[in-house]
Design a protein that fits this description.
It is a single chain. The chain has 153 residues and is α+β, with helices and mostly antiparallel strands. Helices cover 22% and strands 33% of the residues. It contains 3 helices and 9 strands. The strands form 2 sheets. Strands 1, 2, 3, 4, 5, 6 and 7 form a 7-stranded mixed beta sheet that branches. It has a two-stranded antiparallel sheet with strand order 8-9. The radius of gyration is 15 Å and the shape is globular. The N terminus is likely disordered.
């Protein structure tokens, strides 16, 4: 279920996260999350990003998280939307991926890959590393579909 809190109020039991839609040649860079049952969206394709540190703005957080997770520096992330539910307050940014995918250094997750708009619509993507198809996280698919519809990628 999707809903919005007032922008200046976040319930204490809901985490604030900053996530990145990184795009290249009409596709979207996504992370295949580890298959660990105790993490959110295990074994699903999702965005790079994560929890905000105390005192950190969402823009600072998305830059830090992407650097930590794939050693990629986002110069000017563009705010896309805020997506709230009972799990998290998600600040979604987008930016171009300006390096070849082979130049990235995956530090977190089982795989990474460029996902086509068709794969987003189907809700699943093939993992080259695992040699198998894995689903997109439902929330990530919803956000990407809204991004595709609004931005036209």
């Amino acid at each position: 279920m999707s809903f919005s809190f007032p922008t200046n109020v976040t319930p204490s039991n809901v985490r604030s996260v900053a996530l990145a839609i990184l795009h290249q040649d009409g596709q979207f860079l996504m992370q295949l999350r580890d298959n660990i049952p105790t993490i959110i969206y295990p074994d699903r394709w999702g965005f790079f990003g994560g929890h905000l540190e105390p005192g950190e703005t969402p823009e600072m957080g998305v830059k830090r998280e992407v650097k930590e997770e794939i050693n990629y520096q986002i110069e000017n992330p563009i705010f896309f939307c805020r997506y709230d539910d009972d799990i998290a307050v998600r600040y979604i940014f987008h930016a171009p991926l300006t390096v070849p995918i082979n130049d990235l250094n995956l530090q977190e997750g089982a795989d990474l890959g460029l996902v086509s708009p068709d794969a987003v619509k189907q809700g699943q993507c093939y993992s080259n590393k695992l040699g198998e198809v894995r689903p997109l996280g439902k929330i990530h698919q919803e956000i990407l579909l809204a991004f595709i519809n609004r931005i036209g990628n």
